[in-house]
């Protein structure tokens, strides 16, 4: 595409959460610390909630890649499962070959396997992405898994990543028992203006760009406002703006290319004047 024109080794603003491009922004760094501390303590049932496109799957992948060898990740990326489906998915990830419809039996077999892993010093950790798409009953069934413990320790730690809808589901009365087990919750926020600048520069650098700043300050400000600091939208707008600049054989990206990118993107609009606090005229 435009890699050669700008001097990139690869596309800087892909939509896949490639951990090679990870920027340890303020919020992502805080969330990572919460995750690491909780998991180290061994009592963890952690929930990370963030709006669409704020970087939850990115954090999830970083967690999976960075777990020490004694941890055993049980990764459920698509948790739209029945309670039975969840138990079977956990069993499958644990390497248990079980063809059994009765959930109690499956849970019992899981417990036995977790006991054995504990004896071997392995630390299983259930990591669920997109947890907002878990049916309420399945979330409730998760409680049964978190109940598995010896007198001294939990047999399975849990990390849930989800959009804010997860909190809506968890606020239901029927969920209060599960909610009480959550030891830490973290809300992942969008990037602020300075971080958007750092983010764009960081991704350009990771893609191999070494020249002078490619995006003007006005362009970055416009991206920050239109995207409201959401990394996925920053990627979409930046990629489209680079395409426009490439089309005009330009090597830098100014405000006009961002405006064109905004106009070409569903769900994003040009920031209006209403963004600024209104002055209320005084009537004499
Ligand atoms: N800290 C970060 N550093 C670099 N890129 C990031 C960061 N956070 C998010 N991104 C990028 O933003 C995009 C969206 O990230 P991701 O898919 O992780 O969001 P999400 O919160 O899981 O979204 P959804 O709610 O739709 O599942 C990806 O392209 C990812 O690479
Ligand atoms: Mg995601």
Structural notes for this entry:
By secondary structure, the chain is an alpha/beta fold. The protein has helices spanning 3-6, 26-41, 56-66, 83-93, 103-119, 136-146, 165-170, 176-181, 193-206, 217-227, 231-247, 255-263; strands at 45-50, 71-76, 123-128, 157-162, 184-188. The protein has two domains: 26-188, Rossmann fold; 191-265, Helicase, Ruva Protein, domain 3, CATH 1.10.8. It has a five-stranded parallel β-sheet with strand order 2-3-4-1-5, sandwiched between helices. It is elongated, with a radius of gyration of 23 Å. Helices cover 47% and strands 10% of the residues. Adenosine-5'-triphosphate binds at residues 15, 17-18, 21-23, 25, 28, 50, 52-58, 163, 231-232, 235.
Report a brief summary of the structure:
The protein is α/β, with parallel strands linked by helices. 47% of the residues lie in helices and 10% in strands. The chain is elongated and about 65 Å long.
């Amino acid at each position: 595409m435009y890699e050669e024109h700008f001097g990139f080794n690869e596309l800087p603003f892909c939509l896949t959460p490639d951990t090679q491009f990870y920027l340890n922004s303020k919020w992502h760094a805080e969330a990572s610390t919460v995750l690491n501390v909780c998991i180290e303590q061994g009592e963890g049932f952690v929930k990370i909630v963030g709006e669409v496109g704020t970087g939850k799957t990115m954090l999830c992948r970083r967690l999976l890649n960075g777990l020490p060898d004694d941890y055993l990740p049980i990764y459920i990326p698509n948790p739209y499962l029945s309670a039975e489906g969840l138990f079977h998915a956990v069993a499958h990830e644990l390497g248990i070959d079980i063809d059994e419809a009765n959930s109690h039996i499956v849970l019992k077999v899981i417990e036995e396997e977790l006991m054995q892993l504990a004896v071997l010093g392995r630390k299983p950790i259930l990591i669920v992405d997109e947890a907002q798409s878990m049916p309420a009953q399945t979330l409730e069934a998760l409680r049964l898994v978190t109940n598995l413990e010896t007198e001294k320790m939990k047999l399975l730690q849990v990390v849930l990543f989800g959009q804010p809808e997860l909190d809506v589901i968890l606020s239901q009365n029927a969920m209060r028992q599960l909610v009480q087990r959550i030891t830490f919750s973290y809300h992942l926020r969008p990037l602020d203006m300075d971080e958007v600048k750092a983010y764009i520069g960081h991704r350009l650098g990771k893609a191999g760009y070494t020249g002078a700043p490619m995006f003007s300050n006005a362009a970055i400000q416009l991206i920050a406002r239109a995207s409201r600091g959401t990394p996925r939208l920053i990627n979409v707008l930046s990629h489209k703006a680079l395409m426009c600049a490439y089309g005009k054989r330009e090597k830098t990206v100014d405000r006009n290319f961002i405006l064109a990118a905004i106009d070409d993107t569903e769900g994003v609009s040009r920031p209006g004047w209403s963004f600024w606090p209104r002055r209320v005229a005084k009537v004499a």
